[in-house]
Amino acid sequence: MSEAGLHPATAIVLSGPPGVGKTTTAFALSARLGAPAVDLDEVIGGRAGEPVPSLIARLGEASFRTVEAETLRHLPSRLRVVALGGGTLTSPAGRRAAQDLGPVLGLTAPTEELERRLDQPSLHARPILAQRGLRGLLEDRRNSYAAVDRTVDAEGPVEVVADRVHTSGQELQVRLLKLGTANTRVVLGHQLHDAAAQAVAAQGPTRPVVLLLDEGVPASTRAIYRSRLEALGPLSVHELPGGEEAKQWTTAAGILEAAARAGAGRQSVVVALGGGAVCDLAGFVASILGRGAGLVLVPSTLLAQLDASIGGKTALNLAAGRNLIGTFHPANTVLIDHDLLTSLPPAELKSGLAELFKIALISDPTFFGEVRAARGASPVLVGRAIEAKAALVAADPLDRGVRRHLNLGHTLGHALERASNFSIRHGEAVAIGIAAIARYSAQKGWISEDLSAELVSALEDLGLPSTAPIELLAAARAHLANDKKSGNGRLTLITIHGLAKIAVQELFLDEAREALVRNGGAR
Q1: Distance between CA atoms of 141 and 208, rounded to whole angstroms?
Q2: Helix, strand, or coil here: 367?
Q3: Which residues pair with 504 in a beta bridge?
Q4: What's the pLDDT score for residue 123?
Q5: pTM score > 0.85 for this model?
Q6: Comparing 1-10, 226-235, 267-276, which segment has the lowest mean pLDDT?
Q7: How does pLDDT run across 289-306, given as a tens digit for each residue?
């Protein structure tokens, strides 16, 4: 995988127990797509010069799983369908290698149907199956067969099953983000509660899973995600009010104490279902639990999907200011479930549009034009924005260079949030901050008055504010000195020099205050 950005993982990977029809379905789908498919066992047997059953008998199952994972990692990138072995997902290395290829789909069928398909002679050709028996094998591998992005019914004619697999494969998009030595798997699609269980199971936790649930997410949705995770093992569950008040030392400490009492530690996985504040909090908790536990994020708002979940920044607030402490701890998996946005209030969706607007503005003029024309957030535009942000993050994981461009509008935005006691939404505050910077950049001659007016108009077309009341701006003025980008009497501003042309400017604090307050109000 390249060093920068999100990269597509395009193969459809089929898992499931013996007899479920992985190979038959893979090649039926391959013929339909006109693209190559492979059976992993056949590849391994061909390279080893002996059938997989005798290879397992000779090497032992543990050593065979190592060979299996290594073979998966070196399959040709042109493959579109891969049929796994029945036990591939039982090893962490095998799970990771399978996930990197694309969406992992689990074929399922009733045990009685599998028994019918597996006649007695075939048992002797499958040593692990012969040793444990089908029902024993299914029980032993219960969590492994659950470690999939989605399950697909494998009953019926192979053409029908291939149709189901094709539909599920098209509905799920997988992207891989590399941040230095850390990798994040991003899954975009609908109904991702199965994928949440897969993401946890893939990390093989041996201690309780720590689950943070945002009370702003509908109770029925929380229950579905919770039930999927409960099937994997013990949970330490924490239901939290969303919003910035969740990002406190006391909240984090309470979660850590309760999780530790439940037996959680470095071998746990922390899972968050919620908005940006809950995702930030979960990332911070995961980063210090046992000095670094696994992390799975299911952002439930548009803003969180585009901002808090991508890039590995975690944060807590202090009385002195917002996001003043935090760590870098990229999630192992981020699930962008488009269905979670359907229950959002219109104002919350609009708040997320500010982030979409900002990413498009700083990344690509064509993308900006598409966002401008759409006046909303489609799954396609969300995916494009995540890819654009990922390119910046991957190029600058520790936020010392181009990643700082993502702070456009945030200096005044954060101050407005603090001044309003967080009654103004984050996206609304950032929109006002972007508008102020657009006006300031035109005053300095960095962009034309026409472009400045277009940017302000585009924000307003999205239903976002472009000005703040004078009294709120006056109150925000005092908070600008506490911005984490300030120091030595100076304040760092992200300024606009054209579409996809952003710069970092360092101003004296008084000058920056005057520029932001003056340009953030009605004119």
Answers
A1: 19
A2: helix
A3: 494
A4: 46
A5: yes
A6: 1-10
A7: 999 999 999 999 999 999
- Would you say 181 and 165 are in contact if contact means Cβ atoms under 8 Å apart? no
Confidence of residue 133 (pLDDT cuts 50, 70, 90): confident
CATH number, domain 6-171: 3.40.50.300
* Amino acid letter, 65: R
CATH fold of 362-519: Dehydroquinate synthase-like, alpha domain (1.20.1090)
CATH class of 173-344: alpha beta
For 451-479, b/e burial (b = at least 16 CB within 10 A) is bbeebbebbeebbbbbbbeeebbebbbeb
Secondary structure (DSSP) of 221-289: HHHHHHHHHHTTS-EEEEEE--SGGGSSHHHHHHHHHHHHHTT--TTSEEEEEESHHHHHHHHHHHHHG
Q: Does residue 187 surpass a pLDDT of 80?
A: yes
pLDDT at 523: 60
Q: 261 with 207: CB under 8 angstroms? A: no
Q: Distance from first CA to last CA of the chain, Å, rounded?
A: 49
pLDDT reading at 8 higher than 80 = no
pLDDT of residue 144: 84
Closest CA to 14 of 41, 45, 39, 42: 39
Q: Do domains 6-171 and 173-344 have the same CATH topology?
A: yes
Closest by alpha carbon to 304, among 422, 425, 464, 412? 425
The residue behind tokens 């970092």 is 504
Provide the β-strand partners of residue 155: none
- Per domain, the residue ranges of the chain are 6-171, 173-344, 362-519
What are the C-alpha distances in Å from 492 to residues 95, 141, 246, 484? 44, 54, 27, 9
Q: Report the alpha-carbon angle 508-512-518, nearest 5.
A: 150
CA dihedral sign, ordered 184, 187, 193, 195: negative
pLDDT band at 135 (very low <50, low <70, confident <90, very high): confident
Could you read off the pLDDT of 420-461 as tens digits, one per residue?
998 999 999 999 999 999 999 999 999 999 999 999 999 999
Tokens of 40: 């992993």
Query: Helix (H, G, I), strand (E, B), or coil: what is residue 176?
Result: strand
Between the alpha carbon of residue 161 and those of residues 26, 32, 138, 147, 237, the distances in Å are 10, 12, 21, 20, 37
CA distance 276 to 311: 13
pLDDT recorded at residue 6:
62
Using CA atoms, how far apart are residues 351 and 424, in angstroms rounded to an integer?
A: 10
Rounded CA-CA distance 457/450 in Å is 10
